[in-house]
Design goal:
α8 crosses α9, α9 crosses α16 and α16 packs antiparallel against α17. The two termini are about 35 Å apart. α2 links the parallel β1 and β2. The protein contains 17 helices and 12 strands. With about 400 residues, the chain is of the alpha/beta class. The strands form 2 sheets. Strands 1, 2, 3, 6, 7, 8, 9, 10, 11 and 12 form a 10-stranded mixed β-sheet that branches. The chain is globular and about 65 Å long.
């Protein structure tokens, strides 16, 4: 199922190598004019169709005659990128997942270019923060996704339901849609799904600057208790418990009537379940209002690149409004520039809820090494979903795991 990648295991090795890889005097900055450079780019594949769009964008850039870009779409992306960084010869431009940014920032492998692209204020603030480490905004987001409520329209019509707008309404809708072996809602038991409910309750594992754990709060207890009780009642369920790998499969196979997923579900439903009618609504507001989570990838420029000015020129091209719209137009990934939202939605208004989440989404980015605490939290969430752990114990164990990391 679609979900954030795990942190690179060997990234720290790159810092030692790159520390001695300074500029050579001809490419020391990113501001001067530079033409005739041969740039390399690493990317991972989302789909053959999206790969083709990226290749067209690169062909259009190459046709301008300033520089040329050689693209490598790599199946073992993390391994290839880690090896290149550790070897001191990284690609000039490469994809950076938001949950990797802190590791890259800590180890000094990125050139800060976030504010050097055109109109940087046009990007959603949450996305900019996702690619900021210790006050430095490293790279502009290429697109983004959010979590929202995806539901089977036929099931809703049969039960005479409208999209729920509050926690109480969601629980009531899930109850009404639940049948033996068929929960009203299915979602994976993990922080990257349950976290949306935490945001709606005004809770989060850490404070905003990720210096202190904030697990032991009434708001966190409320969020975890709400989702846990709905699981205990049988109204919510984990996809694995009903024979599905993720929420989209549960919805597509008719094993559940609702799920909490991102806009990547659009392609999966079209390809795998083209006859299933569904719709998307914003997740119901919790005690503290609306809440969701965002996921993004940015265009990073290597600190060790010998062609920084040319690399920045290329990233500015990719993040220009016209090019970003062209790259995202045919796909469910959304433009990271706010000014493109209405234009992007013009022929896909049914996805408006996903775009709306950009205004209030929480970033799912912490600090280097924090994945261990998230692993502990996920283990606890799985226990809550199965009914063999208590909310208080999960809060305590996650708080300790996080405090051990944050100090």
């Amino acid at each position: 199922m679609p979900k954030p990648h795990k942190t690179l295991a060997v990234i720290a090795a790159a810092a030692l190598v790159l520390a001695g890889c300074g500029d050579d005097g001809n490419s020391g900055g990113t501001s001067g004019p530079e033409t005739g450079a041969k740039l390399s780019m690493y990317a991972f594949s989302s789909s053959p169709a999206e790969d083709a769009v990226l290749r067209k964008a690169i062909a259009d850039y190459n046709a301008k005659g300033r520089n040329t870009v050689d693209l490598k779409v790599l199946p073992e992306y993390d391994t290839a990128l880690t090896t290149a960084l550790a070897g001191g010869e990284p690609p000039d431009v490469f994809y950076v997942n938001d949950n990797k940014l802190a590791d890259f920032g800590k180890n000094g492998v990125l050139e800060p270019i976030g504010d050097k692209v055109d109109n940087p204020g046009d990007f959603y603030e949450t996305l900019k923060q996702s690619f900021t480490y210790k006050g430095t905004y490293y790279c502009p987001p290429k697109d983004f996704s959010t979590l929202q409520l995806v539901y089977n329209t036929a099931d809703f019509a049969a039960a005479n339901l409208k999209p729920p707008t509050t926690w109480d309404e969601l629980a009531a809708a899930a109850k009404a849609l639940t049948k033996p072996g068929h929960p009203g809602l299915a979602m994976n038991p993990e922080f990257y799904r349950w976290g949306a409910f935490m945001a709606q309750a005004g809770a989060w594992p850490t404070n905003d600057d990720v210096t202190k754990m904030t697990m032991d709060t009434a708001e966190m207890r409320a969020a975890l208790t709400y989702v846990t009780e709905n699981h205990k009642a049988g109204y919510f369920a984990s996809p694995a418990g009903i024979g599905a790998g993720w929420g989209g499969e549960a919805l597509g196979k008719g094993l559940a009537s609702m799920t909490v997923e991102g806009n990547w579900i659009v392609g999966a439903m079209k390809n795998d379940f083209p006859n299933v009618k569904y719709a998307v609504a914003e997740l119901p507001a919790g005690p503290k209002g609306k809440g969701t989570m965002s996921y993004s990838v940015c265009y990073g420029v290597a600190k060790a690149s010998k062609n920084k000015a040319a690399a920045l020129d290329f990233v500015k091209f990719l993040t220009s409004p016209d090019e970003q719209f062209a790259v995202t137009k045919e796909f469910p990934v959304m433009p990271s520039r706010k000014s493109l939202a209405d234009k992007w939605l013009a022929d896909k208004p049914e996805l408006k809820a996903f775009v709306a989440g950009g205004d209030y989404a929480k970033k799912s980015v912490f600090v280097p090494g924090f994945s261990t605490a998230i692993d502990t939290f996920n283990d606890g969430i799985q226990g809550l979903a199965k009914g063999n752990k208590q909310v208080g114990d999960v809060i305590t164990s996650t708080a300790k795991a996080g405090s051990d990391i944050l100090g």
